[in-house]
Amino acid sequence: MGDVVYDAVVVGSGPNGLAAAIELARSGASVLVLEGTEAIGGGTRSSELTLPGYVHDVCSAVHPMGLLSPFFRSLPLEEHGLRWIRPEASVAHPLDDEPAVMLYRSIEKTGEGLGRDAARYSKILSPLVRQGHGLMADILSPPLAMPTHPLTFMRFGLKALWPATWFARGCFREESTRALFGGCAAHSILPLNAPFTAALGLIFMIAGHLDEWPVPAGGSRAISDALASLLRSLGGEIQTGVRITSVDELPPARVFLFDTGPDQLASIAEPVLPERYVRRLRRYRFGPGVFKLDWALEEPIPWRDKNCLLASTVHLGGRMDEIAATEAALSRGEHPTRPFVLLCQQSQFDDSRAPTGKQTGYAYCHVPAGSNVDLTEAIENQVERFAPGFKDTIRARHAMHCGDFERYNPNFVGGAITGGSADITQLMTRPVARLDPYTTPNPRVFLCSASTPPGGGVHGMCGYNAARSALRQLDKIAPGSLRA
Ligand SMILES: Cc1cc2nc3c(=O)[nH]c(=O)nc-3n(C[C@H](O)[C@H](O)[C@H](O)COP(=O)(O)OP(=O)(O)OC[C@H]3O[C@@H](n4cnc5c(N)ncnc54)[C@H](O)[C@@H]3O)c2cc1C
Questions:
Q1: How far apart are CA 472 and CA 482, in angstroms?
Q2: What sign has the CA pseudo-torsion 54, 58, 60, 66?
């Protein structure tokens, strides 16, 4: 690291760490990013997990929030190699004895598959989608920021408060509409009868009506590669293979931003943070984990309803009641026999992911935190249920359980993939309740990871918001060692 003194040091090169570094660098600060592993990108990395020539997304796969993120939209990421590929539909949700219900960009076209709910669906979604970009910006802003579209934000907020199960039963009459909504809401990784779980169902549906849920050409690593390339073009530096375990390993700087979980912030920065704050960081809850499979496939998944091939994401779990029961069992520490499966079929839209004529498949389900149970059969049975003959298309598979995820990236504590539980108590107050959640009692230390608002996903908004907080302090602080 030499004798250079940086304005800012960022620990971790996930999408939020890189976003924070870019915002600091484009505001004129000198920035160094220190990444613990040999590869940058955190949850946005891709590699040949199964066979040569098959590129799999190790973590994030489909990026509605990446495409809609106000911060990413302000960056010239295409000039640095990022190309979003849009599928024809965002979501397919196959059902046992009826056609798959689909989420298309067009509300009308989506409504054609919703039977008696078409008009009601349009009445709920259309006003939110009309101001959709502004609404997304408000949702992704720091918790106490004044909404720029207060009426739409309030309209959204009144619906978002509801448990997803109540919302679906109260608003929709068709099982297909309820299932589509339930699948989107289940991305919350919470019991669907918990307050605020309607929020994520609505957010993902609004996102799907603003634009298709895209995959990045070449794999999710293309996102971090583009962010890193942009950062370097702004003068920022990145060093890999530098895992920080103590404040004494940090080079001198004015401010330090941690793209880590609150648990790591507590252990690394304990000597420079008040004991009470450290205790609160340690009480942070990460929530359930995931079990994930990647497949090298001979051919496209043989869905019974061929429309499923049009969507980047397929939700497997049947009717909403079934999904709700599965996710509720999870909160009791039980493993599902018929899990709710989030499946992505990136190679269907991106030729670079598999050898000619072959395909990749990606699927995961939620499991109790820290689980090492192998759910390969349960997940593959769920795919087979809606795509008979699927198992015969598998050439090779790669499995990851909670322990594998935590070893891969220490931010995935217990296999939790979204930076921590977003239940009602932690939704707005992650990592601890503070007016500015990116700050800590030490004016030189900031948290910028998905464990801050607005939470999990590849959108860079936690990093951007944290960088804005750090920039407000920068001129007031002299550079030096964090211990000083
Ligand atoms: C299986 C799975 C599927 C997902 N699917 C999606 C999806 O489809 N779409 C989506 O938008 N999101 C998805 N996500 C979530 C998304 O990947 C994360 O929310 C996002 O990556 C969080 O970004 P981050 O920058 O906060 O942290 P991370 O991406 O976790 O990056 C943190 C980085 O910091 C490094 N680091 C940690 N501690 C230290 C240390 N002490 N010293 C140095 N370096 C350190 C880590 O090695 C890592 O590189 C998924 C995640 C997983 C695991």
A1: 18
A2: negative
CATH of the domain at 431: 3.50.50.60
Ligand 1 atom at shortest distance from the alpha carbon of 61: 8
Query: Does ligand 1 have an atom closer than 6 angstroms to the CB of 290?
Result: yes
445 C-alpha to ligand 1 centroid (Å): 20
User: According to the model, what pLDDT value does residue 1 have?
Assistant: 54
Sites in the chain below the pLDDT cut of 50: none
Among protein residues, the one with the nearest Cα to ligand 1's atom 7 is 60
**CA dihedral of residues 315, 319, 324, 330 (deg, nearest 10):** -60
Q: What is the pLDDT of residues 134-167, one digit of tens each?
A: 999 999 999 889 999 999 999 999 999 999 999 9
CATH number at residue 306: 3.90.660
Same-domain status, 184 and 304: yes
β-strands 101-103, 89-93 pairing: antiparallel
> What predicted TM-score, i.e. pTM, was given to this entire model?
0.97
User: Where in the sequence is the domain holding 439, given as residue range(s)?
Assistant: 6-42+220-284+419-474
- Evaluate whether residue 97 is within a structural domain: yes
- Amino acid symbol at 190: L
- Label residue 217 left, alpha or beta by phi (over 0 means left) and psi (-120 to 50 means alpha): beta
Pocket test for ligand 1, best of 18, 294, 402, 458 (most atoms within 8 A of CB): 458
Question: Would you say residue 145 lies in a domain?
Answer: yes
Taking a C-beta distance cutoff of 8 angstroms, is the pair 197, 190 a contact? Answer: yes
